[in-house]
Amino acid sequence: MNFPEECNKLQVPSSTREEAEEDEDDDDDDDDDDNDDNDDDDVDDDATRNLCDMKKYLNGQNLEEEEEEEEQQQQQQQQQQQQQQQQQQQQQQMIIIIKKETKEHTTTSSTFFFDERIKDSDVDRKSS
Predict the structure, then answer these.
(1) What is the pLDDT along the chain (128 residues), one digit of tens a residue?
(2) Under the phi-then-psi rule, with left for phi > 0, alpha for psi from -120 to 50, and beta for the rest, what region is 10?
């Protein structure tokens, strides 16, 4: 939607010197003619103001929508970060558990092997 250039400037037009001089005249015919012309200008000014107001309103709505979108994006990013942190913690816990199990298994295996050697050497001694 294209708005008039006047909306971008947001200035209210001032009355001209001619209008001021005609208002000072006591001639009713001239004043009525001026009033008719001014009525058209007033309608145009009102329409311009309405368009300017609509532009401000729409810009305000767009800003609100952009802020809401930014908030939603931030919330999504926070949720993703939390999920990633939870996944990393779970992975670290699994690694620790696996290391413990591997260490226990290794310890048990070596102990078992050591015990078997002792038994074998005992058997060798007894047989001699």
Answers:
(1) 565 665 555 544 455 445 545 555 555 444 444 444 555 566 678 888 888 888 888 887 788 888 899 999 999 999 999 999 999 999 999 998 888 888 776 655 555 555 555 555 555 555 55
(2) left
Question: What is the C-alpha separation between 49 and 57, in angstroms, rounded?
Answer: 12
Q: How far apart are CA 124 and CA 115, in angstroms?
A: 14
Tokens of 128: 């001699």
Per the rule left: phi > 0, alpha: psi between -120 and 50, beta: everything else, 118 is alpha
Which residues neighbour 38 within 8 Å (Cβ) at sequence distance 6 or greater? Answer: 19
12 Cβ contact partners less than 8 Å away, ≥ 6 residues apart: 45
How far, in Å, CA of 49 to CA of 43, rounded?
A: 10
